Structure formats: structure tokens, C-alpha cells
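Re: that backbone. C-alpha cells:
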């Protein structure tokens, strides 16, 4: 997946978003950060995105809602849901609706790289 792949990072926390964008780029991927789900949905980069890493809790539309919106729109983008407040019920729900991975913040680089490789191979 590295090289031409573009990973979208959607997080309302600027420092978390910037850190994830930097980490993804250090792994050899292209990356673009968005401060909200509507910003990502309105971006010209949406159709070019190979994967989205999205925060679960954001004002307005959170990560699960963004994923549901993308699916309802017929846009199947592999998704990694990240959260500072992990819980098993949310993890289970995310997996049931098709979200590829559910990670705790801050993301472990090796775990994130594994997730991105797995999503790309699907």
C-alpha cells in the first residue's frame, strides 16, 4: 500500500491529527488531514482516498457516523476507527457494521501499520 496510497486522517484534535498524518507519512504512505467529517466529505481528495483513519468522537459527525454515511453513499473506503475512550461494546459494534479496525489513542505505530496493510489487502 505505501507509495501512491493516500490515507485520510479525520480528527478534530489538531495535535492528534497532525501526529497521525506525520506517522502515516513516516510509514511511506501519502496522508492528508481533515478537522471534521464534513471537511473530508467535501474534499476533492475523498475519491482518491484508499483508507480513512477517523476519530470516534468528534462534534457533529463522529467516526461511526462518517463510516455509515460513506457506506450509504456507496463509497467503500477501508476504515480504522481510533478513540481515546475504548470500550468493548463500541469495538464490537464497529466490527459488526464493517469497520476494519478499532484502535486506542495514541496509536501504536506497529499496530497501525499492520491495520493499514490488512485493509489494503482486502
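Recovered sequence:
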Amino acid at each position: 500500500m505505501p507509495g501512491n496510497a493516500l490515507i485520510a486522517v479525520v480528527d478534530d484534535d489538531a495535535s492528534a491529527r497532525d501526529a497521525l498524518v506525520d506517522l502515516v507519512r513516516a510509514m511511506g504512505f501519502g496522508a492528508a488531514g481533515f478537522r471534521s467529517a464534513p471537511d473530508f466529505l467535501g474534499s476533492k481528495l475523498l475519491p482518491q482516498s484508499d483508507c480513512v483513519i477517523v476519530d470516534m468522537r468528534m462534534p457533529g459527525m463522529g467516526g461511526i457516523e462518517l463510516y455509515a454515511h460513506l457506506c450509504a453513499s456507496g463509497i467503500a473506503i477501508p476504515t480504522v476507527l481510533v478513540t481515546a475512550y475504548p470500550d468493548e461494546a463500541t469495538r464490537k459494534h464497529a466490527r459488526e457494521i464493517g469497520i476494519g479496525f478499532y484502535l486506542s489513542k495514541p496509536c501504536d505505530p506497529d499496530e497501525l501499520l499492520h491495520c493499514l496493510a490488512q485493509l489494503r489487502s482486502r
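The chain has one domain: 6-121. The beta strands are 6-10, 30-34, 51-55, 79-83, 101-104.
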